[in-house]
């Protein structure tokens, strides 16, 4: 049987402004020699499977995940930015963040005959070909 998935929601999660702190400023972070090795690699593609109880408060769980991601991005806001060539340089890349940038958070439902054993917690699985859950890279 072919696995069935459906995207329920896809939202942009931006860095949180923090309590009493100014929003993250526009900035860039140059890539190092070690980072450049990964520029032409395909993106990491992971799916987290969760088995939830029948009475689970799914909206609350999703809200907590988005809030946590937003708070982490506040501390590491360049990771919410985009990869680009450094202006004026043809061979240097940087992570460029500007207010309004964020990370795409996608929620999907998955149905299949295969039982995924996630009793010990969330499990990472390689996603199969043809299952598109992440946005295209610019």
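Sequence proposed for the structure above (138 residues):
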């Amino acid at each position: 049987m072919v696995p069935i998935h459906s995207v329920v929601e896809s939202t942009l999660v931006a860095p949180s402004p923090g309590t009493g702190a100014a929003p993250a400023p526009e900035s860039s972070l140059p890539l190092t020699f070690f980072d450049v090795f990964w520029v032409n690699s395909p993106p990491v593609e992971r799916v987290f499977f969760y088995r939830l109880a029948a009475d689970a408060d799914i909206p609350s769980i999703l809200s907590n995940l988005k809030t946590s991601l937003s708070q982490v991005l506040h501390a590491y806001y360049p990771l919410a930015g985009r990869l680009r060539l450094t202006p004026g340089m043809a061979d240097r890349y940087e992570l460029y963040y500007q207010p309004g940038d964020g990370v795409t958070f996608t929620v999907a439902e998955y149905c299949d005959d295969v039982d995924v054993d996630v009793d010990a917690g969330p499990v990472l699985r390689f996603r199969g070909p043809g299952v598109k859950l992440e946005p295209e890279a610019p």
